[in-house]
Amino acid sequence: MASSRSxxxxxxxxxxxxxxxxxxxxxRILMMRALFLALYCVVAVRxxxxxIIQNIDLGEGGEHINVSHFIDPEQDLKVRRADIVDRNGVLxxxxxxxASLYVDPKYILTPERTARALSEMFPDLSYDVLLKKFQKxxxxxxxxxxxxxxxxxxxxxxxxxxxxxxxxxKRLYPQGTLAAHVVGYSNxxxxxxxxxxxxxxxxxxxxxxxxxxxxxxxxxxxxLHAEIAQTMQKFSAKAGAGIVLDVQxxxxxxxxxxxxxxxHAPTSSPKNTQFNRVTQGVYELGSVFKIFSTAAFLETQKxxxxxxxxxxxxxxxxxxxxxxxxxxxxxxxxxxxxxxxSNIGTALMGETIGAEGIQSFYKKLGLMDKPDIAxxxxxxxxxxxxxxxxxxLTASYGHGIAVSPIQLVxxxxxxVNGGYKVTPRFVLPESEERGQGTKTRLVSQExxxxxxxxxxxxxxxxxxxxxNIEGYDIGGKTGTAEKPGKKGYDRKKLISSFxxxxxxxxxxxxxxxxxxxxxxxxxxxxxxxxxWTAVPTFARIVKRIISFQAIKPQILHxxxxxxxxxxxxxxxGGQE
Amino acid sequence: MKTNQLVxxxxxxxxxxxxxxxxxxxxxxxxxxxxxxxxxKLVDNEKESLRxxxxxxxxxNRPDRLEKVILDAQESLKMSKVRPLDGSIFMSExxxxxxxxPHPQMKPLYVTHKKKETPVFQYNKKEKSxxxxxxxxxxxxGE
Lengths: 576, 143
Fold this sequence. Notes:
The complex is a heterodimer.
Chain A: H1 2-10, H2 19-58, E1 83-85, E2 91-103, H3 111-121, H4 127-134, E3 141-147, H5 149-158, E4 163-172, H6 180-183, H7 195-199, H8 201-204, E5 211-213, H9 218-234, E6 239-246, E7 252-258, H10 290-300, E8 308-310, E9 315-317, E10 320-322, E11 331-333, H11 334-340, H12 343-353, H13 355-364, H14 389-396, H15 405-416, H16 445-460, E12 475-485, E13 488-502, E14 509-516, H17 534-549, H18 556-559, H19 561-564, H20 567-572
Helix pairs in contact in A: 3-4, 3-5, 9-17, 10-12, 10-13, 10-16, 11-16, 12-14
Chain B: H1 2-60, H2 63-72, H3 74-77, H4 130-139
């Protein structure tokens, strides 16, 4: 009413000199009214937009709670750790966003109720510990890291303003335990603790634009893992290990150390499961070392294949006596010594080569030094210092010198690939053609050829007949070593191993299988030696590889490697 | 005086209009920025979902799991365990016969001469060629 009266008063017309001023005032008031009206309209439209239109958009999900709206926007999310894949792009490790729960004790409204609700939701968070955390003086306390979206939604339903979330990256290993020792693991703060995760920490933490491509092939890995685990169970072995190496490039296609651990919860497994038996563990591997002593003999002696050694009696040197496991009790040629795995014959070969010759050859093959590989867990070989004469004899058949399986396969790859140095690698370069780069020759081509024949001989006529797969030229060498105990070597505790190569006419893969303390079973007549344990395991692994790699069999009549290389000539001088 | 008032009115109108336009532009910019943020967030969410799905794909395709699934379904699917080919099933080319396989002999579709005793092509009827065996029915004998 008052307003209308004032307006009525404005409608009064004043004649004279002041009439113009009144008109101006009226016009100004009108304009101000229009201006304020327009402003109120703008504010009303804006409010309508914010409250009605945008509110409809937010509520579009119906009853679903969009948990991303409740993530602390002020957080400083770390760079996502790079993915790790195998050589074919199969995902081995990735980082996924996961919310982590924290509490701001200042804003906790109902500590008891909230603590009870949380402890019911997460049994690992106890009520009293939560209450204690709610009473802390600080403004930020972690409660649980890496929770699922479902749990996050349930926590929001508690409705306590003191609870908050921060996004973090959680490392996930889709292959589980399968490649645990190769890939390793990292914690929630992005710190690599083992394997590739640790070895390539600097590269991985650079971010998700990168993808680290390992040399691993998950199919090879599975073949190794499944077969070694099966054999371990069958022979109640304490541990097992295996590796598949590309003899040309040195790519580690598979590497297994059992028992293994879950990389998602590494601390829940016993500590010794994290021990990498392939790269960290050093073992006296026994007769597989005859590959190197025989190669050394061929390299250093003239007409080496025509030499024979007397293996009729155990070899006595000082207070030591060297015996054969399966005594032939006759004079043996070099191929026969290798084929029947004669310790006496090999020791005599070592004696002929001499301490310096054996040591320098082993050193050349990288058996005396810590391997120079890009991997964090690497063991150092053990050998006697000072080196005495008897050590030359024992080291020639793999006793008194302990190396890691990766060192062994590297040296075997060098022997069979034509004599070129091989460096095992776990990560593939960005681009590389096979056979690229300069090669360093360590062993002569002739020695390499003869050694391949001899290794083939072990499978066709020697101690590893169970590794013979018709149509495929497989070669190798068995090794059964007694483990050192408190009073010398313990005859009941064995390390049974087999190192095999195939195909022998054009070697591609060197495969090593090792079993720690296998126990004999009735099926093997109580034996737990390599021929009964590691060799059949190797054969099963090779059968799997042949299947998934679709490797064609050799046509025996034309391409039998053993025929081609005249093994019978080597062993029996042409007379069978 | 009138001119001044007109100028003032126009200036005021202009400033109000400009202000309004600026307000509209500012609102539009804010709205677009909000849209961009929303789209960015959606893209990020989709990328994250893709990462989760990729991880899940490889988790479900673990070799040990696939092997177990196949073994479980072995009987119902009539599948057998993959084994390498036995080399002995292949034979050497030396074992193969060196005989030359005769070329198939084709007969004409029709003959112009109706005389039966004078065939166009001569061949030994006793020894049928490989071509006859294959094509005899389709080609007919020209009669």
